[in-house]
Amino acid sequence: MQVLIVGGAGYIGSHMVKLLCRRGCEVTVLDDLSAGYRDAVLAERFVLGDLGDLSLLDKIFGANHFDGVMHFASHIQVGESVRDPAKYYRNNVFKTQCLLDAMVAHKVNHFIFSSTAAIFGEPVRVPIDEEHPKNPINPYGRGKWMVEQMLEDYEVAYGLQAVRLRYFNAAGADPEGELGERHEPETHLIPLVLQAASGRRPHITVFGADYDTPDGTCIRDYIHVADLCEAHWLALQRLWQGGGGGAFNLGNGNGFSVQEVIDVARTVTGREIVVMRGERRPGDPARLVADSRRARTELGWTPQYADLATLVDHAWRWETR
Fold this sequence. Notes:
The chain is an alpha/beta fold. The protein has two domains: 2-170 and 223-250, NAD(P)-binding Rossmann-like Domain (Rossmann fold); 173-221 and 253-320, UDP-galactose 4-epimerase, domain 1, CATH 3.90.25. The protein has helices spanning 11-22, 54-63, 78-83, 85-105, 139-158, 189-198, 225-240, 258-269, 293-299, 308-320; strands at residues 2-6, 26-31, 45-48, 68-71, 110-116, 161-167, 169-171, 204-207, 219-224, 246-250, 255-257, 275-278, 287-288. The strands form three sheets. It has a seven-stranded parallel β-sheet with strand order 3-2-1-4-5-6-10, sandwiched between helices. Strands 7, 9, 11 and 13 form a four-stranded mixed β-sheet that branches. α1 crosses α7. The longest helix has 21 residues, at 85-105.
């Protein structure tokens, strides 16, 4: 099967490329390398280019017969989306529509979209299921929710079938140590904690220690990148087998606090980690945990790396490399 992966040079996209190649797929990667790395692409077919380049998209689709398309090409920094919403709506919404229009024009009907828990906004109940109210509170989340609604409309009008996978906190690294997380700047907790352990940064800042949680720090649902990729593979198979589209929350269902992450990192690394206390950040809920029973039931998805120590250990191997 031939699969196009947009954003395949980035963190999650590169892991997905590796999995698909291992499963015998012919993978083509399109990436502008604005946030990815060429050496992370483990597929032979790589196209350097902009997702919004309509002529390039027409050329790529015209030269191939794709059985599916996966989208990992979004900007992901919430704070930046508030400071520069135009950048986020242009890339995450408009350029995604360019891709969808190319798919429709070339009659490619299977699409996997990387969505986010940010579409829910402040939770009204935890764990968060797929029917939870959608009330995104920043341009990043709003853009993702716009695309989700766009996909529903494209299915009705053009027959494009899409699976929308809503990540909670992607984390970890390739269990074989070949790939890992390389954001610049880094904003995710686990790599930041491990950078403090390795000496690449002097300390880790904990924003708020007075939340209504057992240790006062925020609780988040961390899902291993390898488990995320397995969910994408199952979603693609669902489309190929005629199961239709849909929306699925992806998390391990067990929340871990910021303090727990730091404590586990100290144990895994054997290093001291200097912690600084900071004020709460606006819009940070006390708990964000996924109800992912639908993915487990309908996709047959079972996370293999739900243990926090294993997840941190894989990320630490990458950090030390």
